[in-house]
Amino acid sequence: MPETKSPKPVTPRKTTAALKAAKPPGSNAKSVAKPAAVPAEGPPTAVEPAYAPAICYVHPLQLGRLDRWDGVLDRIAALGFDHVLMAPPFAVGAAGNVFVTRDHAQLHAALGGGPADAAIATLAEGCRSRGLTLLLDLVIDRVAIDAPLRSDHPDWFISHAEDGDALDPRLPPSHLEVASFRHDDPRTADAILTWWTQQLRNWVGLGIGGFRCEAPARLPAERWRTLIAGVRKETAAVRFLAWTPGMDGAAIDALAGAGFDATFSSLRWWDFRAGWMVEEHARLAAVAPPIATVEAPFGTRYGQAFGDATIRERAYRRLLHVADTLDAGWLMPLGFERGALLPMLAERGDPSDQQWIDAHAAFDLSDAVRDVNATIRAARETNTVAPHAELRMLTGPDAPATALLRADGPDLRAGDAATLTVINPDLHMGVSVHADHFLPGVAGGFTRGVALDLLTEPVGSCDDTLRANARPLAEIDLLPGDVQVWRVFRNAPVRAPAAPKPAKSPRAKAGEAKDPVNAAIASPRIGIEQVQPSVENGRFAVKRLVGDDIVVEADVLMDGHDKLAVHLLWRAQDEDAWQHVPMVALGNDRWRGAFRPERLGRHVYAVAAWRDAFGTYRSELEKKHTAGVDVTLELEEGARLVAQAAEHAPENAAADALHKLAQLLSEPDQAHRLKLLLDPVTALVMAQASHYRPFYVESVAYPLDVERAGAAFASWYELFPRSASDDEQRHGTFDDVIRRLGAIRGMGFDVLYFPPIHPIGRTNRKGRNNSLHAEPDDPGSPYAIGAAEGGHDAIHPQLGTLEDFRRLMRAAREKGLELALDFAIQCSPDHPWLREHPGWFAWRPDGSIKYAENPPKKYEDIVNVDFYADDAKPGLWTALRDVVMFWADEGVRLFRVDNPHTKPLPFWEWMIGEVRARYPDTVFLSEAFTRPKVMYRLAKVGFSQSYTYFTWRHTKQEFIDYLTELTRTPVREYFRPHFFVNTPDINPVFLQTSGRPGFLIRAALAATLSGLWGVYNGFELCEGAAVPGKEEYLDSEKYQLRAWDHNRPGNIVKEIALLNRIRRANPALHSHLGVTFQPASGDRILFFSKSTPPVLPARLETAPAELAELANALSPDRFGDNTVFVAINLDPHHAHESDIELPLWQWGLPDHGALMAENLVNGQRTVWRGKWQHIRLEPEQPFAIWRVRPALPSEENPS
Question: 192-201, 248-257, 465-474, 682-691: which has the minimum mean pLDDT?
């Protein structure tokens, strides 16, 4: 840890929203953020600004009479707030608790007493005149036991004091003074809700702009939905805010769709390290945008945890700055800005409280509060609020600093700019971190940025101006408790020709080829061998993601004992200049280096080596000096080497240092000359500057495909749009799919995949259950593509139009879903191509067309194209490419390819290259259930992902063997497995016979073993009805419309949502790599660990002291920043127990060491002591997932 630095002057912080709002008149700067989708034609429509309130919370008893609040309201408005939220101001019960109202019609005596309505109306008008909206706390589940409402409607209530609970010692005394509404009693619930609807309408009519709904779980979600809709019938603008801190996950999930405008985060309780904050953010955003909560009303004051006033102010500023970056609104109790320690008490309060807080303020953060409110206001005014923004954690819990990446919308994939927040969790010590130490690859290619809080006036910048100034993220210095905010950008993708010309071989000099001795003399003296990673020695590209560390090793050797210099070279394919970094010797002539590509697209890398003249000289000098040999002549030789290097140094070398060194070496002091020549710094300067590279040799260039994160990590959901109507008698439409988007995203899926959406042929149309006879209303198989309405570039008319499809894409993106389409190279006999290009198809000797077959299966409704027919070359090839280009032009970047193993491999290599030359972010998924080597060849020629044999792996050893093959052999360099648990074609026998536990088992296996997993609609409903004796679905959607009951009892929707939340929050699960199967007794429990790669040292090209660290940086015996353990019971019928061994040594812990294990399924935290633990898994809950790290001393030995 570096020493604590002196604090910098506090300056107003700026965000992108604030910058855009403050553009000077006449500024031409424009945002470069991409639109969510292709805009619809027609006149622009007004967009309602997102709701992002700046809320100041007040306890009315601490402010006194309502008619004397003018000064307080002025103060709140001056701080920049636009909402005032107050606790209930009504007459209370005997205990005096403001949250237990006796009479909603009467004002609290301390607030002036009398009729409440008139006082509230006056207060609301006072707020409105100051630009403030008045909000009210809503306590909807209880009143005081002596409330007149209870006397009028005794059947509406239950009283603990009068119904047998009076003697229960577990209940506090105040609990006995409460009468609870019977919201769950069908005899009274409607009447209660009607009363509340009228009451809320009345308050809205008085000027109340919204309600903080306290304890929302106490009213069922459907009742909230009815209440909110009823109130909004008269005033649509009224807001409902769900108070969610402290609620468990299931209760939060239940609020989805209830109609809330906002939720509240648990920011106040975050330690600025743990990953639960991001998990909660995603969960809340699925219900309604989260509002940052810096302090809970009536909770423990934030400052109570910090004794020293200086530390306390530092903690408060950190909390404010983090709230500032969320841009979805925030809530601050009045007095927080002055570090109030005096608690809010529901039972009492006095105007002197606020006076005491002001008089005893240890600091005043009013300016910082105004900055936060200005940021929110500017974001609203420029419509840049992102209420459902995706949030990702880039660091593990043990990292010295915490990094959060915040998208501009619900999907980080959709934008080319984001906001990076880096936080120092330590309030006492400063820290320096390098951006390379954030979890590799997680940032999704955002590798360059500008520090927003370092910008100075005049403020006229926005994203394109910032982008021009963006630089690679490097060292970030953080003061104690400091927060830095960066605007970060993706680099432009590599633009390369689809078919680059092969490099020309260097010409041999005349006579060399014929003269063996000259040929031998010209041969490389240095050998470069066994370069890894590589695929078939560079014939095909290695696959990686933007931001991944590319670790390259090679054998480099030369005769004799001279020293070698070895460099790793790399560049994007559209660049001419090589970048380079020195490689480090591992021993036995093996060398290692690493680089990190920042752009999407094709790159190349190579290894270069030469005899290190100065290194060889220095080694000999050191040996002679150690042996006591006179080195006078050697010192003169060294001085000349340095002088020569200074004279001929390259432009980018440290010439000044070389000239100064040469001057020092010209002095006669022999001891000083010896010290300089043996100094490691001299070796570094000479290595960077030397133009003399004898016996220089370069390896061939090895290709590298750098892809986006979605190529390796995604959760797919497949459905047939035509079955989306939930009515077997009505063909579904894209509008029906739009209505399903929220539920699909709610399960945590981020890709929505459709089987073919094109017109379906009528000739030989298949009927239900693959019948050869179709009824008039049978829709046919969507894989029989083509009819009079069009072919592969047309949309089935019953689904909608192309404009409807565009609208669906926009709606999906707004939900954080990316659409994937099926590319199936097959045609119905009615496809327009048969009429226009009959020479593209296969014909039988009798002149009839050849139908598709996969013996014993026959597809009479499908005909085959012939890629090598005379008329098909090249017309068919280019037509098929143009089909993909058509949909890519519409914004589709994900294509699932049907049966690619039955089409020519050269076609795929050419076609994928053509598409990626225009759209480098395109991802192709291979649906090739075929021989392993064919599957692997398809990956080599360009497919980013592939279906696998996962469906037919069941035993513990089968999983271990298969994942070992995928992760520990050369296959890992280019093949990414996509674990689909089922498909429309495959209804696995296991799922047919295992019941609900079997579906949970397969979901857990797929979601945790691979970064890519998918389900076909019905899996979440545990649908397993099969055609007898076959792995096929009965009443398959391939041949008929289906109506699904998405609330079918026994479904696993919540479990799937849980798995996807765990996946997103833990980068260790973002890839199939990093898995290690750990010892576990028995053959029915699969136990494995997954961890992110250890972080490489930063700036390898300029930090020779760190090169040795690189040599061991990627040892498989080291865990990274994020590590999870997974245990799965493979038996759907019986419980099983196992003794599991924890790899404590991978953290450097002894066998009796301790780990903190956070169970991500049930939320429990446990300290595991010792390397052996015992677990038991039931069929009803067949999996457990723990996030694990070494236990802190305070956790290992709690006081």
Answer: 682-691
Each residue of 456-488: b (16+ CB within 10 Å) or e?
A: eeebbbbbebbbeebeebeebebbbbbbbbbbb
CA–CA distance, 248 with 236 (Å, rounded to integer)? 30
Structure tokens at 1011: 């970064």
pLDDT tens for 504-531 read 444 444 444 568 898 888 889 999 999 9
* Interval 766-809: pLDDT, tens: 999 999 999 999 999 999 999 999 999 999 999 999 999 999 99
CA distance 585 to 566: 9
Task: For residues 442 and 484, give the distance between their C-alpha atoms in angstroms, rounded to a whole number.
Answer: 19
* Rounded-to-integer distance, Cα 719 and Cα 820, Å: 11
Three-class SS state of 797: coil
**Cβ contacts of 856 within 8 Å, gap of 6 or more:** none
At position 589, the amino acid (one-letter code) is: D
Can you tell me the distance from the alpha carbon of 716 to that of 1013, in angstroms, rounded to the nearest whole number? 6
Cross-strand bridge partners of residue 1033: 1026
Full 3-state SS string of 179-194: EEECCCCCCCHHHHHH
168 is in an annotated binding site: no
The secondary structure element, H or E, covering residue 907 is: helix 905-918
Backbone φ/ψ region at 441: left (φ over 0), alpha (ψ -120 to 50), beta = left
Bridge partners (DSSP) listed for residue 545: 707
Helix, strand, coil % over all residues of the chain, rounded to 5: 35, 25, 45
From the list 1177, 1142, 1180, 1185, the residue with the least C-alpha distance to 1160 is 1185
- In this structure, are residues 330 and 371 in contact, taking their beta carbons and an 8 Å threshold? no
Do the Cβ atoms of 552 and 532 come closer than 8 Å?
yes
Per-residue pLDDT at 633: 86
Query: Which phi and psi angles does 566 have, rounded to 5°?
Result: -125, 130
Alpha-carbon span 436 to 549, nearest angstrom = 9
Q: Which residue is associated with the tokens 């094109």?
A: 758
1095, 1077 in Cβ contact below 8 A? no
Q: How far apart are the C-alpha atoms of 436 and 1101, rounded to whole Å?
A: 13
pLDDT, the chain, mean: 88
Q: Which amino acid is at 731?
A: H
How far is the CA of 728 from the CAs of 313, 645, 771, 808, in angstroms? 63, 81, 18, 22
Q: Which residues are catalytic?
A: 898, 927
CA-CA-CA-CA dihedral for 864, 868, 870, 875, to nearest 10: 80
The answer to whether 477 is annotated as binding is no
766 marked as binding residue: yes
Residue whose entry in the numeric block shows the structure tokens 């100051």: 130
Residue 8 Cα distances to 5, 377, 454, 849, angstroms: 9, 26, 11, 79
Token code pair at residue 1131:
């038996």
Give how far Cα 336 sits from Cα of 56, 320, 357, 680, Å: 10, 10, 9, 54
Q: Is 861 annotated as a binding residue?
A: yes
Whether 287 has a pLDDT exceeding 80, the answer reads yes
Closest C-alpha among 914, 724, 865 to residue 808: 724
3-state secondary structure of 705: strand
Contact 418, 36 (CB under 8 A): no
1039 a known binding residue? yes
3-state secondary structure of 1152: coil
Sign of CA dihedral 269, 275, 277, 279: negative
899 annotated as a binding-site residue: yes
Q: How far is CA 810 from CA 338, 823, 891, in A?
A: 45, 21, 10
Structure-token pair, residue 921: 């972010």
Task: Give the tokens for residue 231.
Answer: 């109130």
Question: Which strand (E) or helix (H) includes residue 135?
Answer: strand 133-138
* Paired tokens of 663: 């001057």
760: DSSP letter: B
The pairing of strands 542-545 and 702-707 is parallel
